[in-house]
Specification:
With about 110 residues, the protein is mainly β. About 0% of the residues lie in helices and about 55% in strands. The protein has no helices and eleven strands. The chain has strands spanning about 5, 10, 20-25, 30-35, 45-50, 55, 65-70, 75-80, 90-95, 100-105, 110. The strands form two sheets. Strands 2, 4, 5, 6, 9, 10 and 11 form a seven-stranded mixed beta sheet that branches. Strands 1-3-8-7 form a four-stranded antiparallel beta sheet, with no helix packed on it. Strand 4 (about 30-35) and strand 5 (about 45-50) form a beta hairpin. The radius of gyration is 13 Å and the shape is globular.
């Protein structure tokens, strides 16, 4: 079983920045996706990054969020800037093995509030 763990969440003021991390326990992971879930809302995709370093983003994340991977450290980062209260939610990491086998973390809470 692959273990996946997010970290870095917390309270940040509007306009601030935050960097989340996602670490996994298996070298076979080839793609990592970030999702988020606001209170009372469905989970939505933020973006993803592959071992090649190529990333993609949903429209709301373009220009404000950056996803990067450090393969040797089995870690993916989600850097967020110009945060607004609408970015509040639990952020989840999904690490994917070849064949599409997904492994989810338990999430890290981001609260954007003054």
């Amino acid at each position: 079983q692959v273990h996946v763990e997010e970290s870095g969440g917390g309270l940040v003021q509007p306009g601030g920045s935050l960097r989340l991390s996602c670490k996994w326990s298996d070298d076979s992971i080839w793609l990592v996706e970030w999702f988020r879930q606001a209170p009372g809302e469905q989970r939505e995709r933020v973006g993803d990054v592959g071992r090649s370093g190529v990333s993609s983003y949903e429209d709301f994340a373009k220009g404000r969020f950056t996803i990067s991977m450090e393969v040797a450290k089995r870690t993916v980062f989600l850097e967020m800037r110009n945060l607004t209260p609408e970015d509040t939610g639990v952020y989840y990491c999904k690490a994917i093995q070849p064949g599409g086998v997904p492994h989810w973390g338990s999430g890290t809470l981001v609260t954007v509030s003054s």
